[in-house]
Amino acid sequence: MKIIGQTKNIEFSLLEKDIMVIQYYKEKVIQTLQDKIKNNIDPYMYKKTNVRGSMTSFDFFSNDETFHILLNEISFLLFKFGDENGFPGVNKFKIIDAWGNKLNKNEYVRNHHHITHGKVRGTHISANMFFDKKEPGTYFPKYRKEIKPKKGKIVVFLSNEMHLVDVYKQEEPRYTLAFNLQCRKVNND
What we know:
Shape: globular
Distance between the termini: 40 Å
Largest sheet: 8 strands, antiparallel
Strand content: 35-45%
Order of helices and strands: EEEHEEHEEEEEEEE
């Protein structure tokens, strides 16, 4: 994967027109987000969604300060991605939902999209963030490509893209963070 841009704490590249990969390097933010997932798994959500494992509530990170730090630091890339994928002039996002996932051995994520996900319709951009290199990664059937996990890697994609995670085979849990955004254009006139 060719890196097309870089800042002090971020590298980014386009895998396909509608899939962007961001490598985020702020260790404290990454670790804090992962710890929050580990400590806030909602037992009620176990295997109730496309995540055939455990997760936090769907809105767990929506108002989380650390998540907002991450989102603010990558927002220029999300704006660019939105602009190039049918949302010209996007300069603001509404967080539809943001949650953490935990897969134990033999758990997986079903093939799905996020287009009508959450309480509010209108999800445009979705993403997931890895906290380590535990495979499998996120698989996109349309492209027959699996995005391999790496600590701090964020996969950004249009919400209508089908994706899945194959059966997890390792003993230690696999944690990820997922979120959905609605594109907005606000005039500053």
